Amino acid sequence: MLICPIGLVFFISLFSPKWHVWCSSDPPGTPMKPAAFYTIEDIASVDFMHGREYRKTLHER
């Protein structure tokens, strides 16, 4: 049941639409990155407690 919403987000990320709201660290108006990027960013910085420095480093890559 959780696969469908997650799969939908991964599918939409293939087309790289612009965000109209904040998503993770991306402000409105920026193009959507691949869904895997947001998954890695959120899990590593929150669950593994790497914090904002990890997010900044990841965005610079």
Notes on the protein architecture:
The chain has a domain at 33-61. The chain is 56% helix and 0% strand. It has three helices and no strands. The model has no long low-confidence stretch (mean pLDDT 82).
Task: Write the topology of this structure.
Elements (H helix, E strand, L loop, with lengths): L2 H11 L21 H13 L3 H10 L1
Descriptors:
61 residues; mainly alpha; globular; signal
Query: Major sheet: size, sense and barrel closure?
Result: none
Which spans of ≥5 residues are poorly predicted at pLDDT below 50?
A: none
In terms of quaternary structure, the protein is single chain
Q: Judging from the principal axes of the Cα atoms, what is the shape?
A: globular
Keywords: Signal
Signal peptide: 1-23
Task: Write a brief structural summary.
The protein is mostly helical. It is built from 3 helices and no strands.
